[in-house]
Automatic annotation (TrEMBL):
GO annotation terms (biological process): actin cytoskeleton organization; barbed-end actin filament capping
Keywords annotated in UniProt: Actin capping, Actin-binding, Phosphoprotein
Function: F-actin-capping proteins bind in a Ca(2+)-independent manner to the fast growing ends of actin filaments (barbed end) thereby blocking the exchange of subunits at these ends. Unlike other capping proteins (such as gelsolin and severin), these proteins do not sever actin filaments. May play a role in the morphogenesis of spermatid.
Subunit structure, interactors included: Heterodimer of an alpha and a beta subunit.
Protein name as annotated: F-actin-capping protein subunit alpha
GO cellular component: cortical cytoskeleton; F-actin capping protein complex
InterPro entries for the chain: CapZ_alpha, CapZ_alpha/beta, CapZ_alpha/beta_2, CapZ_alpha_1, F-actin_cap_asu_CS
Length: 299
C-alpha cells in the first residue's frame, strides 16, 4: 500500500514502528531514509522525538554530563520525555537526532543510607568496567517501589562502524533490593549485532539470571556484587563464543541458503561460505577486552 493513501494516524503508527525497530547506532540513518519517503518535516520531527526517546531507553544510550557517564533507561525517566542523572542531580531532555541535551534543570535527591550505598556500588562497578571495557559506561540508579528501596546497575559498551557495514552492542542490567542479610540479584545480559555487507544479518542474544548475595556491610556488598557481575558476564561470553565456534558450514548453509528461481546458473556456495568465514572469524578484534567478541564478532 502506498504511504499517500494512509491516514495521518496510520502514517504516525508506521513511522514510529519503523523507527523503533532501528538497530542500535542506526536510528539517525533510519530517520533520514524515512524523511526522503515521507516528505513531511513536521510529522517526522514529532515522531522522531517520540521514537528517539524510546530508542534511548531500549539501548541504554550513553551521555556525558560534567565529565561523568550517564546511561539513559526507563529507570531514570521522570516524565515528559525527561531523564534524570543522579551524579549531576540534573533532569533534561535529550534530542537523539541532534545528539544534544535540552531544557536542563536542577533536580534534588534525598541523601540517605541508600544514596551512600549507591555511590559505593557505583565505585566498585566502575573498577570492573574499566578492566573489561575500554569504552564502556556504567551507572547505578535508585528506585523506590512500595516503600522498598532498589538499586539498578546498568552497563553498556558498543562499537558502531557503519562505514564498515557493522554495528554491535553489549549491555546488561542488574537489580537488587536493599535487605539486611540476604538479597536476590536479578540480571539480564543482552547482545545485538548487525552486519549488512553483502548480507543483512541481525543477531540478538540475551540471558536472564537470578543470584543471591550475602549482605555483611556496604563495602563488602559492593565488592561481592561486582564479582558476581564479572563472573556471570564471563560465563555468558564463553557460552556465546562456544556456540559461534560450533557454527559449521552446514549450519551457515541452512541459515543463508534459500530457494531461488531456476536460472540454470550454478551458485558456488562453498566459495560464498569461505568468504563469509573470512569476514566473520579471522578479524575478531578485541575492542572490548573480554567483552569485545560479543560487540563485533561479526567482523
Amino acid at each position: 500500500m502506498s504511504l499517500s493513501v494512509l491516514s495521518r494516524k496510520e502514517k504516525e503508527r508506521v513511522i514510529r514502528r519503523l523507527l523503533i525497530q532501528a538497530p542500535p547506532g542506526e536510528f539517525v540513518n533510519a530517520f533520514d531514509d524515512l524523511c526522503l519517503l515521507i516528505r513531511d518535516e513536521k510529522l517526522m520531527h514529532h515522531q522522531g522525538e517520540c521514537a528517539g526517546h524510546q530508542h534511548c531507553q531500549k539501548y541504554s544510550v550513553p551521555l556525558c554530563i560534567d565529565g561523568n557517564p550517564v546511561l539513559l533507561s526507563h529507570h531514570n525517566v521522570v516524565g515528559d520525555y525527561r531523564f534524570f542523572d543522579y551524579q549531576s542531580k540534573l533532569s533534561f531532555k535529550f534530542d537523539l537526532l541532534q545528539n544534544q541535551l535540552r531544557d536542563i534543570q536542577s533536580h534534588g535527591i534525598i541523601r540517605n543510607e541508600t544514596e551512600y550505598l549507591r555511590n559505593v556500588v557505583l565505585c566498585a562497578l566502575k573498577l570492573y568496567v574499566n578492566d573489561h571495557y575500554p569504552t564502556g559506561n556504567c551507572n547505578v540508579l535508585r528506585k523506590s517501589v512500595k516503600n522498598k528501596e532498589f538499586l539498578i546497575a546498568c552497563i553498556e559498551d558498543h562499537s558502531y562502524e557503519t562505514r564498515d557495514c557493522w554495528n554491535g552492542l553489549w549491555k546488561s542490567k542488574w537489580i537488587f533490593q536493599i535487605n539486611p542479610f540476604l538479597t536476590q540479584v536479578t540480571g539480564r545480559i543482552f547482545v545485538q549485532a548487525h552486519f549488512f555487507r553483502a548480507v543483512n544479518l541481525h543477531i540478538e542474544i540475551s540471558k536472564d539470571l537470578k543470584e543471591s548475595l550475602e549482605v555483611v556491610n556496604q563495602a563488602q556488598l559492593a565488592l561481592n556484587f561486582a564479582r558476581l557481575v564479572e563472573e556471570q558476564e564471563n560465563i555468558f561470553q564463553a557460552a556465546v563464543l562456544e556456540e559461534l565456534q560450533e557454527l559449521s558450514n552446514e549450519v551457515l548453509r541452512k541459515i543463508l541458503r534459500r530457494d531461488l528461481p531456476v536460472t540454470r546458473t550454478l551458485i558456488d556456495w562453498q566459495r560464498i561460505l569461505s568468504d563469509l568465514n573470512l569476514v566473520m572469524y579471522p578479524k575478531l578484534g578485541y575492542v572490548i577486552y573480554s567483552r569485545s567478541v560479543l560487540c563485533n564478532w561479526i567482523i
